[in-house]
Amino acid sequence: MMYRAAWISLCALALIACDAREAPMEGDAQSSASGPVIVGELFYPERIALPPDAELVLEVRDAATADQALLLLSRRPLEGRQVPIAFELTLPELAEVGQAVFRAGLVAPGGLLRVTEAVPVSAEVDVLTLSNLRAYTLPGPAFGSSWRCGDQRFLFGPLGEQQYLVAAGQSFELLADGDAYRSADGTVAFRIDGDTARLERGDGDPLSCRRLPDLDRLSYSPWRVIEIEGEPVASEGAPNMSFDADEASIAGGAGCNRYRGAINAEGKRLRIGPVTSTLMACPDDGRGDQERRFLAALGRVDDHRVSEDGRLLLLSGDQAVIVAEPLR
């Protein structure tokens, strides 16, 4: 345990964050480390300034453990810096870990502001370059498990040593305390028991919560299709998908026409259909063929998963017939 604590402290010294006008600085720890190097730049497209007290949080977790044990954590005050934010991190050898995942987040005293997808880091990679690492607003598909408490949806998941409970317009920073996760001031407590939970907030009545299926996570963001049956999709006329967990439906643009279909979801199992669409003619530029392939692939979907880099894979058997990325 002392070795691991010293190892984490040594690695934390190697992390420097700066704005795009400054090259990432290198700490003394980097010269003695011999593991993978993560070099990246964090951004988001919205023109929303970060608060002056925002911090950049970077973490590395063990992907092989059930709870994805925290291996490395670094928090750095941004001191007014805005995106894009460059960073560099040198890790020790990961041979004993095998597969790790890296995530970055932006936090402020008010809670978790944005978070990136989890990115796999292999011990066999010398340098991992993340030149356009997008930080997403929350709630969104990039973070945590999904819960319904009363009439509200929440995401619950870790970043660093904290757990965050996030809903639209609300973010609670919680720490493990006995049989619950509690806020520092004791006004919020979240108690999990399998697929059910209890949310206590201030003087209000406790709320009973239930874990939502994966389909609910997909409904936080529309998705842009980037691959159909192993073939990349042209950006012009790329299909998109929006999931509605309440109506158990999918809808979007197929390229030239609008479409809508029913969804039958149970856990990770996902079947789509029947699907109907409008009947507008497509230009003679390949979009018509791409649209037909997309709609046919939707009808073959019988399962799905979200990859470690946040992409949605719609599967037919073991084959990914549609690959999409979140638009947010």
Brief characterization of the structure:
This protein has 328 residues and is mainly β.
Class of secondary structure makeup:
mainly beta
Helix content class: 10-25%
Radius of gyration computed on alpha carbons: 21 Å
For the terminal residues, how far apart are their CA atoms? 40 Å
Query: What shape does the CA trace take?
Result: globular
Quaternary assembly: single chain
The overall number of domains is 3
Please tally the β strands and state the result: 27
Number of H- or I-type helical stretches: 4
The CATH topology of the largest domain is given as: Lipocalin
CATH architecture of the largest domain: Beta Barrel
Low-confidence stretches: 1-23, 25-32
Main sheet attributes: strand count, strand direction, barrel closure: 9 strands, antiparallel
CATH class of the largest domain: Mainly Beta
Q: Tell me the strand percentage band.
A: over 45%
Question: Can you describe what's shown?
Answer:
- This protein is mainly beta.
- It folds into three domains: 37-137, Immunoglobulin-like (Sandwich); 145-212, Lipocalin; 215-326, Beta Barrel (Lipocalin).
- Helices cover 11% and strands 49% of the residues.
- It is built from four helices and 27 strands.
- The protein has helices spanning 2-12, 28-32, 214-218, 287-300, and strands at residues 16-19, 37-43, 55-62, 70-77, 85-90, 99-108, 111-115, 119-122, 127-134, 136-137, 145-149, 152-159, 162-167, 170-177, 180-182, 188-193, 196-201, 207-211, 223-228, 231-232, 240-244, 249-253, 258-266, 269-277, 303-306, 312-316, 319-326.
- Strands 19, 20, 21, 22, 23, 24, 25, 26 and 27 form a nine-stranded antiparallel sheet that branches. The protein has an eight-stranded antiparallel β-barrel with strand order 11-12-13-14-15-16-17-18. Strands 3, 4, 6, 7, 8 and 10 form a six-stranded antiparallel sheet that branches.
- β23 (258-266) and β24 form a beta hairpin.
- The longest helix is centred in the C-terminal third of the chain and has 14 residues, at 287-300.
- It is globular, with a radius of gyration of 21 Å.
- The relative contact order is 0.11.
- It holds the Pfam family YscW.
- Residues 218-320 form the DUF306 domain.
- This is DUF306 domain-containing protein.
